[in-house]
Amino acid sequence: MNKYVLCLIMWGFFCFPSMWAQSKYYANSQVWLQKAEACKSPLVYKDHYPIRIVKSIKDEKAYQGWRMEDAGNVSTLFHESLKKHSGIILDFGEHLTGYFSFTLKMLQENIAADAPVRLKFTFAEVPAELNTPFDPYPGSLSRAWLQDEVITLNQVPVQAQIPRRVSFRYLKIDVLGASSFDFTFDKLVMKAQSSVLLQPSVLANTTDPLIQKINNVGLSTLKECMQTVYEDGPKRDRRLWIGDLYLEALANACSFKNHDLTKRCLYLLAALSNDEGLLHATILEEPEPHPQYGQYCLDYALIYNVALLEYVKTTRDLATGNDLWPVVVRQIEMALRQFSPDMIYDMQKPPLYWLVFDWKDGYDRQASMQGLTIWSIQNSYELAKLLGKEKDVSSWLVLIKKMKKAARACFYNKKTGLVESGAERQISYLSQVWMILSETLTQKEGRRALSSVMAMSEACYPGSPYAYHYVLEALLKCNMNKEARELLINYWGNMVEKGADTFWEVFDPKDDFISPYNFYPINSYCHAWSSTPVYFINKYPDVFQSGLK
Amino acid sequence: MNKYVLCLIMWGFFCFPSMWAQSKYYANSQVWLQKAEACKSPLVYKDHYPIRIVKSIKDEKAYQGWRMEDAGNVSTLFHESLKKHSGIILDFGEHLTGYFSFTLKMLQENIAADAPVRLKFTFAEVPAELNTPFDPYPGSLSRAWLQDEVITLNQVPVQAQIPRRVSFRYLKIDVLGASSFDFTFDKLVMKAQSSVLLQPSVLANTTDPLIQKINNVGLSTLKECMQTVYEDGPKRDRRLWIGDLYLEALANACSFKNHDLTKRCLYLLAALSNDEGLLHATILEEPEPHPQYGQYCLDYALIYNVALLEYVKTTRDLATGNDLWPVVVRQIEMALRQFSPDMIYDMQKPPLYWLVFDWKDGYDRQASMQGLTIWSIQNSYELAKLLGKEKDVSSWLVLIKKMKKAARACFYNKKTGLVESGAERQISYLSQVWMILSETLTQKEGRRALSSVMAMSEACYPGSPYAYHYVLEALLKCNMNKEARELLINYWGNMVEKGADTFWEVFDPKDDFISPYNFYPINSYCHAWSSTPVYFINKYPDVFQSGLK
Q1: What domains lie within chain B, and their CATH numbers?
Q2: Nearest CA in chain B to A135
Q3: From which residue to which does the signal peptide run (chains A, B) (predicted)?
Q4: pTM above the 0.90 mark?
Q5: What interface predicted TM-score (ipTM) does this complex get?
């Protein structure tokens, strides 16, 4: 009779209609948007609970100087005053993405709460994130990405939810304000979400625990990023980028096989191209699907073509291939505008596009872009053949020849066997890689170039797992299987050894604190483009599971 | 077609059934709770908008060292990037209590928000509250009362609400996190609430602008505290205390005349007495009405009787008087247990009750409690007569005589004409006051005592408007109308001159930073017990409006 259940406060976010519409270039873009919505996967939810209490230990040998040590059973959290445990850190045992909610209860009978409480929840992907002051904030991306949330609760008992979606393994809870009464948690739950369900996975052809572990961490990474689109990182950015889509779709095809998600993303990107038909590099879903207007990456636009090819090859969904074929043609037309009459990519020709390729200071992208364009046109031609359209684009074969010839003349140093890029004739891993992937170099030349560059301490080496994906592809193409396996173990395996639950956005084995954003806690520690070991290990079991032949 | 309205995130507070039930002492307590609910006043809502932008100016002459200066038109807020105006202060022109909501919009066309924003809203009653760092927090009450709320908004445009109820005149907005895009407010509204509607009020019998202003500030204070109960302070505590109820009801009877609110509070308190029938000093309404268990103030319990008398006198609601009469009798019985055989209040006799009377360090409450008890019994006898129950309590008349005689013998120094309290024979304003209000001293003796104490620089003077209320009553009782008017002007008028929009919980003209809680920003600057100028000015127009006869 005396029991009330009051819904005291509503926190409502309304999202407004956006100003962006689908592309005016493609007649079907409105239909494409509808198709994208039609194949949106429902999310799968699962409740998770903390598995232990931990404490942060400063340790120079640990990744970024901090490791977590066991500090007791979670039951403490439900039976002792939270005021005595301000700063407590909970370990959920794995990286999770979703919504966190909790209930607080009074600990003493017949005592009423006489004041509000103020709590801070800090959600962290890696241990150092909880041990690095966020303010004053030095980072170059919005401070609001960092996941520290302060809330005031008018009374205890209370049930509450952190309004934003969070992504984390560790949760630190600080009591910033309380009165004399004692309270603690009654419930505490993380409702995790993904468009796929992670199943325990045992590789059939290996007993190597590190390979097994790399595969599992890759699967976790991929699962976390597979939401209603392929997100780049569930903590930060939370949006669809073409580069991530391509690598995620490759890994998905070898694992979760949620092909509808790939299809959705391909349609979204196509529908939201600009009015010249050029793809935007990135799409956000809320309040309604829209591009980050004006954000073009010409390498990504060309990669879209290859992503579509891979999708059609995997699914045999020729209808989608045919539907989106005009986009493929248009990306190549747009890229070719940036080439000089002698078929060399002109870095100075307006508009100056951002070329992603890697997060790496000082890396010259010209040779890489030359190679990537050739690679994209070759793959687009393969798609044309699948769709029976190769006659429409027979000119591409001539073009490819010309571009390769120009590339060899411009970038390839026959004496050293190395590709050199830009006015400074820079020697980088990626310049070799893209000339190999595009088959501008022969396999033999490629092997020589890769062996040389990997032996050069002064060579510009990659800064991100994204770039290392293409290095691995190039090694495999050159039949350098031993080196490919070593790279997988030395790079992704090194992350695992440093404690990665999910693979990181950037990783330089020589610098644990590297950040493209001037502040390593703002890095994404679960990043889509780093999940490709799943693709390599499962696509090439002979190389990565059974070891070397 | 493309327009979505999504409700993204729900912030739900559920309040759980509490463990407290109504008093087991009174057979009707369950019915009393129902009666309290039945006369709950509906709240009146009104939307308010900022009237100007201000900036904080450090000024030693200003109250607490800060004053607000005009800094422009509010339209800036809606047309210029909020990032350029981080730290902006809005002035809503008056003290308001309720819920704050806003909408953010993008400022550039065809730019999508690419990151969340993090904003801090600090709501302040007085200027210094915005200019005193809250952390590290030195106060003795929960830090969570302070009204600084940090929120993360996942996107722009967005509509959001600060989940907690706030109480303020000034609002400071800091941008703690943002990306490169520009955004600002589209709307911004404070939905203010009260159980009464403040109407413009002009006093009929005075042209003195200060008296007029004191009356208006008192009305604003009272309006802000009149919610679904008489709250003590809408910013901090937000609950029903007997002491505040008594003074608020006096002022209400001379102004808003929302007698249902008084009735509701009287019933709530009675229903939630302890199992000996003693009133709890304070009641909270959420999640369901319950006392702050174990919180007794014996002076407040006795004041309840007088509050009921005043209610019955004002409304002639004899039914309620009869209904609650057992509570009146019981409070006196409970108080008498604390008296020595020679009828002196025994400060050492367990249980040791908290006696409020004032916020004032070192003030000895013994003589005051002796006087207040007599005063309460006398008033309770007056209620008995109104209800035709005087024969039931005829013993009280004998009791009153005995207590007065004992009081004079124990506390009254005939030579000096002053009441002295405690082992240290302390001379305080309030010891005189309560011996006057209880008619333990004659009017002539009272006049002598008050004149003397007010001339003594070493006398213990009151620390709060609450205590000064009784000083004013005592002055009027001694026909010291000139002094009463001077006190009103010097004390409450001084607050007005220092910029009060509403009257403050504590005020010492000699110390702007005084705080019972070790941190002046946690003081309540709109406090119920300070609103009694409304009662005095309107109840005694000859004294306070027309000046002196």
Answers
A1: 44-194 (2.60.120.260), 209-544 (1.50.10.10)
A2: B176
A3: 1-21
A4: yes
A5: 0.91
